[in-house]
């Protein structure tokens, strides 16, 4: 297959982990006979330095005409207090691409059990994915703001169309996995949650193979720590998803391991690690590249339907961890500390 990919390395460790991901992608390309046409463009601080804007129009145009986008990370102390901020580039591109669903897998890698705060027997079966609504709800709806010194308002608003499209995405993902979907809301108190629940129940009729459960958000927060292995796909509104997915990310023990995808109805998806630009370790060949590499696997799976290729990358990650190759953020007592490049070498060797 031939695919066009826009690559936005960004700032800090972004370019380092991206370099690793692109090497992995090259290995996949060669082994499976694909052609990936990769174009690199600036975003964030690098784009501010080069053009004065965090998302130059050339970058956006290139993104819009590609099949998928890979993003490293943006930001850093260099641009603190500036009028233009690197993070604006990120918010803007999400908006321009209309990526309303944010997918975050949380998978416990058995060899990393020693760095998880949960007991090994609790995390061994954890393999879940969050589908978070990303462009609506409390973070965006009007009215919003301060009215004088003593009052402030935020609005939790959803149109059923906004709920439908993200819920449909979650059902599709659930149908392609074990077939269990947990919809998280606060329907005992919030009207928008009651609407959310109605939409989920209606959509369920089109997916008879998916088993649906509703869970209140406070209970979900508790269950994620008590027994995370019970979940497969979790769909929820913007703020609940923001909080719960950060909570769940701790199960794996390191930010550096986590991947994410932001997808729209039919435009290009945006794939990026959950971690930020980590200025404290930038330029040291010390960053964990696995979050970026696993984001690349998500791109292959969700945008290109290349499941075998994505499986192969995930399996290579598993094997590299099993063989005790670790960057400092996932350091264990057993192995020595590897550089970013060494981890990538090991992945490619196994691919
Ligand atoms: P942002 O606001 O961009 O999300 P943040 O303040 O959440 O940034 P990160 O940049 O994600 O922070 O870094 C948080 C901590 O985790 C830092 O100490 C950083 O070095 C570490 N870290 C983040 N990503 C990685 C990685 N890929 N490998 C190793 N350490 C990492
Ligand atoms: Mg952060």
TrEMBL record:
Its EC number is 1.1.1.85. Binds 1 Mg(2+) or Mn(2+) ion per subunit. Homodimer. InterPro entries: IsoCit/isopropylmalate_DH_CS (IPR019818), IsoPropMal-DH-like_dom (IPR024084), Isopropylmalate_DH (IPR004429). Pathway: Amino-acid biosynthesis; L-leucine biosynthesis; L-leucine from 3-methyl-2-oxobutanoate: step 3/4. NAD(+) binds at residues 276-288. Its cofactor is Mg(2+); Mn(2+). Its main location: cytoplasm. Residues 4-347 form the Isopropylmalate dehydrogenase-like domain. Mg(2+) binds at residues 218, 242, 246. Catalyzes the oxidation of 3-carboxy-2-hydroxy-4-methylpentanoate (3-isopropylmalate) to 3-carboxy-4-methyl-2-oxopentanoate. The product decarboxylates to 4-methyl-2 oxopentanoate. This is 3-isopropylmalate dehydrogenase. Keywords: Amino-acid biosynthesis, Branched-chain amino acid biosynthesis, Cytoplasm, Leucine biosynthesis, Magnesium, Manganese, Metal-binding, NAD, Oxidoreductase. It catalyses: (2R,3S)-3-isopropylmalate + NAD(+) = 4-methyl-2-oxopentanoate + CO2 + NADH. The record marks 139, 186 as: Important for catalysis.
């Amino acid at each position: 297959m031939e695919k066009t990919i826009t690559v936005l390395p960004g700032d800090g460790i972004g370019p380092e982990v991206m370099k690793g991901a692109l090497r992995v992608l090259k290995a996949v390309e060669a082994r499976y006979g694909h052609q990936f046409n990769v174009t690199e463009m600036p975003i964030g601080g690098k784009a501010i330095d080069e053009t004065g804007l965090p998302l130059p129009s050339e970058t956006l145009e290139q993104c819009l005409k590609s099949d998928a986008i890979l993003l490293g990370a943006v930001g850093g102390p260099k641009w603190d207090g500036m009028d233009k901020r690197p993070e604006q580039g990120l918010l803007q591109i999400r908006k321009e691409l209309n990526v309303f669903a944010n997918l975050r897998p949380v998978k416990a890698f058995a060899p990393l059990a020693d760095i998880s705060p949960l007991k090994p027997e609790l995390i061994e079966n954890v393999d879940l994915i969050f589908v978070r609504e990303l462009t609506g709800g409390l973070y965006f709806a009007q009215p919003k703001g301060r009215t004088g010194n003593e009052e402030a308002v935020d609005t939790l608003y959803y149109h059923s169309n906004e709920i439908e499209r993200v819920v449909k995405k979650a059902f599709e993902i659930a149908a392609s996995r074990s077939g269990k979907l947990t919809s998280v809301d606060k329907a005992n108190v919030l009207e928008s949650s009651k609407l959310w629940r109605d939409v989920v129940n209606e959509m369920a009729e089109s997916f008879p193979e998916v088993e649906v459960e509703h869970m209140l958000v406070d209970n979900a927060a508790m269950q994620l720590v008590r027994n995370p292995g019970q979940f497969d796909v979790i769909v929820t509104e913007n703020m609940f998803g923001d909080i719960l997915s950060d909570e769940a990310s701790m199960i794996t023990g390191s930010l550096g391991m986590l991947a994410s995808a932001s997808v729209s109805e039919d435009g290009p998806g945006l794939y990026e690690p959950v971690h930020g630009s980590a200025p404290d370790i930038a330029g040291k060949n010390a960053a964990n590249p696995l979050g970026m590499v696993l984001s690349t696997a998500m791109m292959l799976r969700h945008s290109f339907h290349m499941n075998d290729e994505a499986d192969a990358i995930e399996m290579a990650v598993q094997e590299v961890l099993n063989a005790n190759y670790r960057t400092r953020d996932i350091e264990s007592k057993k192995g020595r500390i590897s550089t970013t490049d060494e981890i990538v070498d090991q992945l490619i060797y196994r691919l």
